[in-house]
Specification:
Elements lengths: L6 H14 L3 E2 L24 H4 L9 E9 L15 E9 L5 H15 L7 E6 L9 H10 L6 E4 L1 H4 E2 L6 E12 L16 E14 L5 E14 H9 L11 H10 L7 H19 L8 H20 L5 H13 L5 H4 L1 H28 L4 H12 L3 H10 L6 H15 L16 H21 L5 E6 L4 E6 L6 H15 L4 E8 H6 L13 E8 L6 E6 L16 E10 L2 E8 L1
Parallel strand pairs: 1-2, 4-5
Antiparallel strand pairs: 2-3, 3-9, 4-7, 6-7, 7-8, 8-9, 10-11, 11-16, 12-13, 13-14, 15-16
Bound molecules: alanine.
């Protein structure tokens, strides 16, 4: 098919269209987000732009456009269907407090129907139906109506469908309007039914009106922004009248190569697709410097590679398929992502080494399963934990050995493990076990009082350099040059105990960072808090005296009355670095 529109052509047309409408073209950010512990990979074009969507000025201006490579593993189990991929490319245009929904929707429509020539008869859209927190998005529905989308093709849906973000635990989010395309050869039905797989979502326009804070609250942003995301592979399916994403030019050559190498390609069409997707994703992830491992990004990569290896076994691929796959990926995507060309040999080697480790794990897994068939589910979970052996592989091995695995037992073991290791506040990768016992919460609040007392005694140069709390003690590091004399320590203790003896209220509020700083809130040294922050104030309601105001995610007591009668003892004061001192203290 010589008239096939390629990914490269689609990218160029999109960038050019929005450049004509005043957007600055910016480069794709790496897959591994810089300075952001809240997500493992860039999952959307907006992700690297989150600070700007929250109000920080972007050096390239208020209208941006780009092509962003993304990894999403939330849908990994449906990969192999016609439209879900783990690595994919997202086209996006943004308004950073500039244009609003009218222009965004009008341009989406113009780009799809005029620039790309997609027939409006095959389009359907969804808009946010509204709930108790945020109003229904009638305005978007009206706009679509006026542009020529019939009412039956405009579905008003709730938060599960038409609310997007934040990308991680916190950040910008808002109602969205999603554009669907009827990809099937049959005539499109009159109405849009998003559960029908033949309606494929190709583009999303998000109206970033809110932000989710670390405390879980939804706050309205002072300026609205627009974030859009259009799937390159899916749009190419629509444009070229294809039946799945595996036919587009950034997947098809790899699928063809693997089919060619396989000894049993026909019995295993789904495995062929899964391996195509996973191998392509793995190449791009490795090209960004990730190595297979047992946690975080490394584990995501390990899972992709090992699931791919399972598929490769079924397909009967020769042992050296990795080198061919990496070369084909370099050919398909090297123009847009030169790192896959530069790193092609290294990528193949990383996959080959992981394949070696996987063979080991497989052999071991078989022995364990044979020995502990009685512990079925738990043994399967252990294999996952210790050897990164995906459950689906274990199940397959066990079935082949005539010993079906107890899946319910596996899920129970997994859930128990999750419950044990869930991080505090639901945040990702902060580490530490959640301990919100009364004792720990009390120590959090006393830590704020300690900092306030130190500042009152020693001066405002004292800021937090570190803090660690258990249910038995607090440990607090702060900037100060000299050791504290006994009298100074005694005065610090007296201040803290004086406050504990009073009924001070502890109030939490969320606000823009600038506003928080202006109100005198202090943060830990060098800490980045994001645009919307949570601030705790400890104050005497009767006199209005503010004892402490700090950036903090909590948790805290509601009032120091909860700690009344408790004594405060400093058990140790020492230097831990030049200009940094540490206090260990207990509530008696
Ligand atoms: N950030 C939006 C999405 O990923 C556009 O759908």
């Amino acid at each position: 098919m010589s008239s096939m529109i390629t990914a490269s052509q689609l990218r160029s047309r999109y960038l050019a269209f929005f450049a004509r409408h005043g957007h600055a073209v910016i480069p794709s950010a790496p897959l591994v987000p810089a300075n952001d512990p809240s997500v493992l990979f860039t999952t959307a074009g907006m992700h690297p732009l989150a600070p700007y969507l929250l109000g920080q000025p972007h050096p390239a201006g208020r209208r941006l456009v780009d092509v962003q490579e993304c990894v999403r593993t939330g849908d990994i189990d449906v990969v192999g269907d016609g439209s879900h991929l783990t690595w994919f490319e997202m086209l996006g245009n943004w308004s950073l407090g500039d244009y609003g929904r009218d222009e965004a929707i009008a341009w989406s429509f113009e780009f799809l129907t005029r620039e790309l020539g997609l027939p409006v008869e095959r389009l359907g859209v969804t808009c946010f139906a509204g709930d108790e927190e945020v109003a229904e998005d009638r305005a978007s529905a009206e706009l679509w109506r006026r542009l020529g989308v019939p009412a039956a093709r405009i579905a008003m849906l709730g938060r599960d469908d038409n609310w997007w973000g934040p990308a991680g635990a916190t950040g910008p989010c808002g109602p969205d309007t999603e554009i669907f395309y009827w990809v099937d050869g049959s005539p499109p039905p009159a109405g849009l039914d998003v559960r029908d797989r033949r309606w494929v979502e190709i583009w999303n326009n998000v109206f970033m009106s809110h932000a989710r804070t670390a405390g879980g609250e939804l706050v309205a942003l002072p300026q609205g922004s627009v974030d859009t995301g259009m799937g390159v592979e899916r749009t190419l399916v629509a444009l070229n009248g294809l039946s799945s994403v595996y036919e587009v030019d950034t997947l098809r050559p790899l699928l063809d190569e693997l089919r060619h190498l396989a000894s049993a390609p026909h019995e295993h069409e789904r495995e062929l697709r899964v391996l195509t997707d996973h191998a392509r994703a793995a190449c791009l992830v490795i090209a960004d410097g990730v190595a297979p491992g047992n946690k975080d990004r490394g584990y995501v990569l390990r899972r992709l590679v090992r699931r791919g290896l399972v598929a490769a076994r079924r397909l009967g691929l020769p042992a050296d398929w990795h080198g061919r796959a990496a070369a084909v990926v370099a050919g398909m995507l090297g123009e847009a992502y030169p790192e896959v060309v530069r790193e092609a040999r290294g990528i193949a080697q990383v996959i080959a080494e992981e394949a070696g480790r996987f063979e080991h794990a497989l052999a071991h897994g078989l022995r364990v399963l044979e020995r502990c068939a009685a512990r079925g589910g738990e043994a399967a979970f252990d294999l996952l934990q210790t050897h990164g052996l995906p459950f689906e592989v274990t199940r397959e091995l066990a079935e082949a050995a005539g010993k079906p695995v107890d899946e319910a037992g596996f899920r129970r073991a997994q859930e128990a493990h999750r419950a044990r290791s869930r991080p505090a506040g639901g945040e990702t990768f902060r580490g530490g076990l959640a301990d919100h016992s009364a004792e720990v919460v009390g120590y959090h609040t006393v830590t704020h009082l300690l900092l306030a007392a130190l500042r009152a005694e020693l001066g405002p140069h004292v800021v937090q350099r570190g803090s660690n709390i258990t249910h038995e003690r607090l440990r607090f590091d702060f900037s100060h040059g000299d050791r504290l004399g006994d009298e100074q320590l005694a005065r610090v203790v007296a201040r803290v105990e004086g406050w504990l003896a009073r009924d001070l209220v502890v109030d939490r509020a969320t606000m823009a960072e600038a506003q928080a700083r202006a109100s005198g809130a202090i943060g830990a040294f060098g800490e980045k808090y994001g645009e919307i922050v949570s601030v705790y104030t400890i104050a005497d309601r009767a006199t209005g005296e503010v004892v402490s105001r700090e950036f903090c995610g909590g948790p805290h007591v509601a009032s120091t009355a909860e700690l009344r009668g408790r004594g405060f003892r400093i058990v140790r004061e020492q230097a831990i670095a030049s200009g940094v001192r540490r206090i260990k203290a207990v509530l008696a």
